[in-house]
């Protein structure tokens, strides 16, 4: 049964299912230089279905977000190991950008990650990716670090994170 989280105008945000993985991989291939194996998508869906979401318009996939959970040192001031959500990848098809779909995907994944009692949600983003950095800043993520030559082509990443206070 499909779990619909929100409907804004013609766009539906819902939890992904196994049959969504191929269309999600297609969006990823079209829009981002970082690609993953089908097994990796499946494992993220199995691990954190609350934050593996797709956006659909008229039955066509137009965007996705997928996350994982990890334990590690806080990007904020908490001591010791904390539970962290990690946005592995998010994307919206070019022709559907600037309609609030990216915002809706991040908002719903924040809810999904919080349902797992994470202390924070973090991600890496290319320093040149202004659209994405703006989106995350609008969602109150902070730039916490610059990761030198993080990407295979040598570009730096910003590590951005948002802390949860329950
Ligand atoms: N110029 C300036 N600001 C922008 C732009 C732009 N072209 N696009 C988005 N923004 C900012 C704005 O602040 C915007 O808010 P506003 O419209 O109220 O001004 C805010 O982002 C949110 O815009 P949305 O419409 O909600 O976002 P959209 O649906 O366009 O998706 C996304 C944003 C996901 C970054 C999209 O541009 C995209 O898919 N890019 C290619 C893939 C990508 O770079 N993904 C992120 C990689 S990092 C990672 O995956 C962890
Ligand atoms: Zn990452």
Lay out the secondary structure.
Blueprint: E1 4-8, E2 11-15, H1 21-31, H2 38-47, E3 53-57, E4 60-73, E5 81-92, H3 101-114, E6 120-126, H4 130-138, E7 142-147, E8 157-163
Parallel strand pairs: 5-6
Antiparallel strand pairs: 1-2, 2-3, 3-4, 4-5, 6-8, 7-8
Bound molecules: acetyl coenzyme *A and zinc ion.
Acetyl coenzyme *A is lined by residues 31-32, 87, 89-92, 97-103, 123, 125, 129-132, 134-135, 138.
Walk me through the structure.
This protein has helices at 21-31, 38-47, 101-114, 130-138; strands spanning 4-8, 11-15, 53-57, 60-73, 81-92, 120-126, 142-147, 157-163. With 166 residues, the chain is an alpha+beta fold. The chain has a single domain, classed as Gcn5-related N-acetyltransferase (GNAT) (Aminopeptidase, 3-Layer(aba) Sandwich), CATH 3.40.630.30. The chain has an 8-stranded mixed sheet with strand order 1-2-3-4-5-6-8-7. β1 (4-8) and β2 form a beta hairpin. The longest helix has 14 residues, at 101-114. The mean pLDDT is 97. The structure holds acetyl coenzyme *A and zinc ion. Acetyl coenzyme *A is lined by residues 31-32, 87, 89-92, 97-103, 123, 125, 129-132, 134-135, 138.
């Amino acid at each position: 049964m499909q779990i619909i989280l929100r409907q804004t105008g013609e766009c539906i945000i819902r939890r992904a299912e196994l049959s969504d993985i191929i269309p999600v991989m297609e969006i990823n291939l079209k829009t981002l230089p970082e690609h993953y194996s089908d097994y990796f998508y499946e494992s993220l869906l199995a691990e954190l279905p609350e934050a593996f979401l797709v956006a659909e318009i008229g039955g066509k996939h137009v965007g996705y977000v997928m996350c994982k959970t990890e334990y590690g040192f806080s990007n904020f001031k908490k001591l010791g190991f904390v539970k962290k959500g990690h946005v592995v990848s998010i994307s919206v098809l070019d022709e559907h950008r600037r309609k609030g779909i990216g915002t809706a995907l991040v908002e719903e994944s924040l809810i999904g990650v919080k349902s797992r009692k994470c202390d924070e949600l973090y991600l890496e983003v290319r320093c040149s990716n202004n659209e994405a950095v703006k989106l995350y800043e609008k969602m109150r993520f902070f730039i916490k670090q610059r990761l030198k030559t993080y990407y295979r082509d040598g570009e730096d990443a910003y590590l951005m994170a948002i802390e949860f206070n329950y």
